[in-house]
Specification:
Helices cover 92% and strands 0% of the residues. The protein is mainly α. The protein is rod-shaped. The chain starts with a helix and ends with a helix.
């Protein structure tokens, strides 16, 4: 065999051995990845709730403004009717 081929094979074996880990390490990595995914989903859900609460607050503010506008319009209507009745 040529020396270059042997060196590449040896490098490939070393690289493969680099990724050999015990089952305990694999389980720990899996648990850490699952925890990371849960935290990401939790953060996403919390942000969605916060945005929905903000939209609801805005809608309530807008609704209150519409109620005030309706009360003003009803007061003007009553005033005009009273004026016409007298």
């Amino acid at each position: 065999m040529k020396p270059g081929i042997i060196a590449r094979q040896h490098a490939a074996r070393l690289k493969a051995e680099q990724y050999l880990v015990d089952d305990d390490v694999r389980e720990a990595r899996t648990a850490a990845l699952l925890d990371l995914d849960r935290r990401r989903r939790l953060s996403s859900a919390e942000q969605a709730v916060s945005e929905a609460e903000d939209r609801l607050r805005y809608a309530r503010r807008d609704f209150t403004a519409q109620e005030v506008a309706l009360a003003d319009a009803q007061a003007r209507l009553k005033s005009v009717r009273d004026e016409m009745a007298s």
